[in-house]
Design brief:
Strand 3 and strand 4 form a beta hairpin. The chain is built from two helices and five strands, in the order H-E-E-E-E-H-E. It is globular and about 45 Å long. A five-stranded antiparallel beta sheet has the order 4-3-2-1-5. The chain has 87 residues and is mainly beta.
Length: 87
């Protein structure tokens, strides 16, 4: 099989789009070009960020990184295919 070639410009056009992921409504906020992957931030959901000692420090938006390609690079990652685009 051949590796899939992803157009980074197409992924960058997804920034700002809304998506349903793992039971959360999220927004695409960034693209990681070297992997490639989408960075999603969940709406109205915070998580507790720990400091360097593991103690609770502050609330931050819940975020996800969704890989676009499978590890072999020959197909789309199942998590990416499972995204439900809302826009």
């Amino acid at each position: 099989m051949q590796r899939i070639v992803i157009d980074i410009k197409d992924l960058q056009n997804k920034i700002g789009m809304r998506v349903w992921h793992e039971g959360q409504e999220c927004c695409v906020v960034e693209i990681l070009e070297d992997q490639p992957a989408l960075v999603l931030v969940a709406d109205d959901t915070d998580s507790i960020q720990a400091d360097q000692f593991g103690s609770p420090h502050r609330k931050v938006p819940l975020s996800f990184i969704v890989q676009v390609l499978s590890p072999c690079g020959e197909e789309l990652h199942p998590d990416y295919e499972a995204l439900d685009w809302l826009d």
